[in-house]
Automatic annotation (TrEMBL):
GO cellular component labels: cytosol; ubiquitin ligase complex
InterPro entries reported for this sequence: ClpS_core (IPR003769), E3_ELL-like (IPR042065), E3_ligase_UBR-like_C (IPR044046), Ribosomal_bL12_C/ClpS-like (IPR014719), UBR-box_UBR1 (IPR047507), UBR1-like (IPR039164), UBR1-like_WH (IPR055194), WH_DNA-bd_sf (IPR036390)
Protein name in UniProt: E3 ubiquitin-protein ligase
EC number: 2.3.2.27
Pathway(s) annotated for this protein in UniProt: Protein modification; protein ubiquitination
GO terms, biological process: protein ubiquitination; ubiquitin-dependent protein catabolic process via the N-end rule pathway
Subunit (UniProt): Interacts with RECQL4.
Enzyme class: transferase
SMART domains: ZnF_UBR1
Originating organism: Pipra filicauda
Amino acid sequence: MADGADRGPGAGATSGRAPAQAPERAMWCDERFDFQGTFLQCLAKHVPNIYSAEMDPLLEKQEEMVQAAILYPLECYLFGEDPDIFLEKLQQSGTSQLCGKVFKGGETTYSCRDCAVDPTCVLCIDCFQNSIHKNHRYKMHSSTGGGFCDCGDTEAWKAGPLCTKHELGSSSSPKENSECQLNEEIMEHSRRVFPSVIKYIVDMLIWEEEKELPPELTVSREKVDSYYCVLFNDEHHSYDHVIYSLQRALGCELGEAQLHTTAIDKEGRRAVKAGHYASCQEAKEEIKRHSENVSQRPLHVEVLHADVMAHQKFALRLGSWLNKLMSYSSDFRQIFCQICLKEEAGSEKPCFISKLMLWDAKLHKGARKVLHELIFSSFFMEMEYKKLFAVEFVKYYKALQKEYISDDHDRVLSVTALSVQMFTVPTLARHLIEEQNVITTITETLLEVLPEYLDKNDKFNFQGYSQDKLNRVYAVIYDLRYVLVSKPTLWTDRLRERFLEGFVSFLRILTCMQGMEEIKRQIGQHIEVDHDWEAAIAIQMQLKNILLMFQEWCASDEELLLRAYRECHKAVMRCSTNGRSREKTVFHLCGHTLESRPYRVSADPVSIHLPLSRTLAGLHVRLSKTGAISRLHEFVSPEEFQVELLVEYPLRCLVLVAQVAAEMWRRNGLSLISQVFYYQDVKCREEMYDKDIIMLQIGASLMDPNQFLLLMLQRYELADAFKKIKPTKDQDLIKQYNILIEEMLQILIYVVGERYVPGISNVTKEDVIMREIIHLLCIEPMAHSAITKSLPENENNETGLENVIDKVATFKKPGVSGHGVYELKDECLKEFNMFFYHYTKTQHSKAEHTQKKRRKHENRDEALPPPPPPDFSPAFSNVVRILNCDVMMHILRTLLQRAVELETHLWTEAMIQMVLHLLSLGLLEEKQQLQKSPEEEVSFDFYHKATRMGSSALNAVNVLMLLEKLKRVPQLEAQKDTVNWILQMFDMVKRLREKSSLTTVAAASASEAAKGDESTQDKEKAERKRKAEAARLHRQKIMAQMSALQRNFIETHKLLYENTLEAQGKEDAIMEEESVSSAVDYSKIALGPKRGPSVAEKEVLTCILCQEEQEVKLESAAMVLSACVQKSTALTQNRSRILELSGDTIDPLFMHPDLPCGTHTGSCGHVMHAACWQKYFEAMQLNFRQRLHVEQIFDLENGEYLCPLCKSLCNTVIPIVPLQAQKINSEDAEAVAQILSLARWLEIVTVRISGYSVKNAKGEKQNLPAFTNRGMGNSALEFHSILSFGVQSSAKYSSSIKEMLILFATTIYRVGLKVAPNEADSRIPMMTWSTCAFTIQCIENLLETEGKPLFGSLQNRQHSGLKALVQFAAAQRTTSPQVLIQKHLIRLLGVLLPNFKVEDTPSLLEVDMFHILVGAVLSFPSLYWEDAVDLQPSSISSAYNHLYLFHLATLAHITQIVISSATESSTACSPDNSEEAQSAQSFCREVCQYTSGCFSQDIPGWLVWDCVKKGIMPYLRCAALFFHYLLGVSPPEELLQDSEEGQFKALCSYLSLPTNLFLLFHEYWDTVNPLLQRWCADPMVLSCLKGKSIAIRYPRKRNHLIELPEDYSCLLNQASQFRCPRSSDDEQKHPVLCLFCGAMLCSQNTCCQELVNGEELGACTSHALQCGAGVCMFLKIRECKVVLIEGKTRGCLYPAPYLDEYGETDPGLKRGNPLHLCRERYRKLHLLWQQHCIIEEIARSQETNQIFFGFNWQLL
Ligand SMILES: [Zn+2]
Ligand SMILES: [Zn+2]
Ligand SMILES: [Zn+2]
Ligand SMILES: [Zn+2]
Ligand SMILES: [Zn+2]
Ligand SMILES: [Zn+2]
Ligand SMILES: [Zn+2]
């Protein structure tokens, strides 16, 4: 909204509100004038002018004019003083104690599970953060928009209804309220102003004339022929459709069409053409015609006169003006509401607010928003008026809902969406029920909107339904749910009557559902079209909780419950007429008969939808629970009751399920399978399957047990199966019978055994949930979310899990990945019931398997008998009689007999298991009864029946005898333990029967004895088990060994690779130790004359592709390591630096000390023959071309491929160059030491270089440095002197190695600089050195942050990658022209030796010294190059070269550190006066002198030394790594350990440095002094010392991912305050946090796209280019997901490092539990970054989750 009038205190809002038009103002102030008339005149005069330029409006200008011409005078009149001053006063006085903040889509809302009355009660983030609920079990969710904050609503919260902010307002309000109350004059003015304003708004919004205005707004001036063609928004046409239609119809540019479309989508309408009436009319027709072409309906277009358009626009502006005003004072709100509700006397016309409501569906989007906000800010802020509004709302409810159902806008834009704000308020809901009969109103609305789905029998049929329309109907159903959400505690007669009336009305809906969508078994042909089943099931799901709530409401009042039961019973009976016409038939079995009307599920129509029957079942258990059942006969007479009829339909439904399982309904297609699935699924089962079981239990409790079972047998169509066996050969039919028998037995088990329903037995809701959880956890340990998903939710979306979970389970925390799980407590295992009725078939067998395995593990028998069930409540106590009735005995005996007689095809093991289960239930029941009451009172005689002969035949046997025989049936070996258990039970019951005449003590001791018996048996069994277990373990071990042998090489290799870091570290350490011990005599010094020998073993590697081994040798064919080269900003501190996208002009020789962007080379450590790799790569290219595999995740053009073994993303290979073992003769070396001092070495080098330059100068232009020989004395030295200290011939590499050297070097160059490959480019060697140095720095950094020792703790892949990289970098020189290498060397040396006058040499503070060191060391051998022979320095020469180069670089680095730390403030180190401190002091004096005092001499020596010692560490560590991998000299042991103390000394010793580093200066003073002078004199250095520029401090800061808050809602808070930097609209944003630098970005939105190299990139992608050189890590805050991206095309999602208290992540905040930072997981992300594995992770994730291909990462 263009609401520029922000009246925050002190805001300069007056800019456009200058009190212009003074005469007019005066007139307004006149008391006597007619306000209405003047107001309209004023509008008529100004409005058309202000909004004249509709096509291209200047919004700011418009707003200015509105303020000046209309609003300012209006406010002056209203307030009687300056509006700004007045409103500021009013605001400060604090107004409402209701927050009332209206949510926009995407905003986070909070609800408290402990205190909210229902889940629709929510808080805004501000209120939440200031409320007590912050420390409760809260939930966070994303608003869909349209709701508002309930802070301050005492009815919404059981506790803490006010946040501290609003509490303050309310506590101080009584006192201040008097002050802030408007004075009578203002109230009077308001009463005059508001009616006119409101009337104008209403009139204009519902104005339908296109051409004319109301007469009072028509100005006398001539009417201009100026019209607009206005296009309206709808939900049918896509963005692209509209753009297309506009382009065609108006012939406009794409850009303009897009502009229009965006505006239409946002505001709801827009003028797309201005002109004369005719031309607009023409455009209208054109648009309609074109839009009709692309979609079914035309777009909604109107032609409006410019003045009409203007007034409608202004009406909205006035609406938002009022909206603002409302927030200032309760008096304004009340006056406003009064006027809105005022009905014209004697008129039937609706009041203003109702008029608007009724017009809502006709308004465009923008107008609706204003209207709804106005309702929120006025009516909903005043409880009294909210009630009155609700009454109006319900008055027009039907009409409003019907409008909504035919509307084409989303629900959030409909006024009907406000229902939740009223219906969920308990007192309001009760008021609406009592006074407005809202339940009936809603159900009647439903009955009126649903008839189009009624068939000829008045049952619903949703075939061919429209999903959209039905979704709108659901909204009405939801309203019903809202009204019912809080159960009344107090019933009045009126409430009871009204509720019952509503209930009866609701039963009418259920009647239309009872038996709807009947199906008939398809025989012969498969059905042609699967019918639409989803709608009916979806409605069932919607109704589930409403049905439960109705039942609960009924149950809270006995009178009501009985009356409701009567109504429901009547309704069921009315629907149970089916089959009345048929003649009854008679069925005999075991001397019992059943008379019933014939019906076959397999032949007659059947329906799965029986909500009436199920509601009745629900009411019945509630009758039983409350005890009201004793009065049932007063309401339903026994004759009417007809229990057989009640059971009939649910039974049919269960039979249908059985027949589907028996595959009898195969030809009915998938739709039936799905329905059966949902019938039993957790989303529906409470009001479907569960209630059907209850209905059977009701049947079993009220019918004769034999009759009941006969009915079961008949409906299962199994009557024949239990008569004499008819020999049938039809295998399919037998199988079918067997499944049906199993299904029926299972249902019988449930009918008798499932008693965990309040009312059926005396259990509580908690007991029920506990039992559900126990059975879930008996399958396996589960995550919190998995358990939640498997439990039914109540109307408040709660499962009740938290209240009980700790009683039955223990929580096991998650590791770095995965999630936390709950494990069942041992004491709960005894509750396990194998035939738990909510188990699916798979769950059943999984649970059985798990439990048997567990018992086996504990050396116990495998019997899993049922746990003793709770006692039935009195109303259901008769159910158990079906266990010991004749028909049941017959069934059990028949099945056992079949098993014993080995008629294998007529029984199954599952069937026998169920028979055994039923036997156990019978025995348990008898035992329990016997233990409770004396024998003679127990009529339940299961034992007796089971031990009685079934018939008088000679071969007759009883159940007990059959069981004995069963033990010998080989197929039933697995059931033996269960059979034994049952036999023991028989024994126990027998004893109880016999001994019950004795005292109870005896009975108890008998059971004790039985237990003792059990235990000796157990012991024997245990022994047997243990032996078996031992044998099994032995077998397992052998099997494991065998399979280990068989496992192929790749597998083992992969395993090695995947080992954890720690394990690797240890292995390496051991390896190192071994080599150390063998070389124990050798010195562990890498540089100089005392240099130790290279420890280079023979390396034999296996190619992962051809599996052949090969030794790595110079002259052999090349072997390579797969590798990935990438640009990296992982080490920089300064991410705002603008990186160049292409490196065409970059000079990479010198690295800036901040390490802004390096080139990292990583490897997964897998070795291949170069030839094998090339073949592999070519094959892949070929494959790619042939298959046109569009979704290729790697870019073959750029050399990308996946490592054939580990599938890491690679883009090149590193050739493996063997280390040339070197050993020096220490005597020779000592001898050389006598002559080759640093000074002399420098001279020799200088001469050599100048010699080259002279030589080259002959050929080409002089561009090599001219030398100043100052201080270099002896010029007698000549060009060849350098060779005199020892040379050797250069290494000869095989051509294949050379080829790979070139290939890899070119890749580094290409990737590192983002340029086209060019093998001849002079920068190739620079890049080689640079990546070598940078990669070492990355590894050093990683080891340090992880606190690992420098050597021996690298992963294998890092170790072999680094080794190969350093050796490659040393060898690469040989493939480039030596002149070129020399040129680079000279430039590098130029930094250290300023007497080499080379142009562009950076100052000491502008280079990274380690890069210089690596470059200089690797390029130095080029100085040995002679025309004819390929020479390189001998070992001794190298040793000195390395030593002096390193010392020079170190001296320079120390100087860098000292200078850059000049302004460092003192640290906590205590001063001392050590030798080092003194040396430091004297060094500082020199520096001070050379910088002409810029360097302060006052810094104490000890502090300088401290800085140097700390600052130089990373450099020394890098150097040690570098020289180790270059030379192969073993490091001292201290570096293999993680100790701070030893490290520095060991490093100094390894690198031939004095531990007092300043001694180096002393030692070389003569040589160094001039260098130091020049270093310090550099203008750059001086400017830094003067504080004019900032130098990098050492040690450099190590990078970490940004600090994240512990509590996720802090982040959400940040996100809520996020404002897009580029746009000011209030649309939903996707704030995204860069985890590298902490920048908050506006993602996935056109406003923040950037044009980079001609491509539109999203905010994230373009930020990543700069922040992470293309690779970056973001946190999508609203979705709680991490996004990794690389370049423009790749990315993946990664779980955010936040866990809820159950150890689970919550992507999308779907579950909404409080989330807390998990440090380990965040550290894992940090490592992903620092190890440069982000690209790898993306590739891996893209390979597994193909979905992400569709995503346009570029626009992220
Ligand atoms: Zn709030
Ligand atoms: Zn609040
Ligand atoms: Zn709370
Ligand atoms: Zn190979
Ligand atoms: Zn690999
Ligand atoms: Zn960033
Ligand atoms: Zn933006």
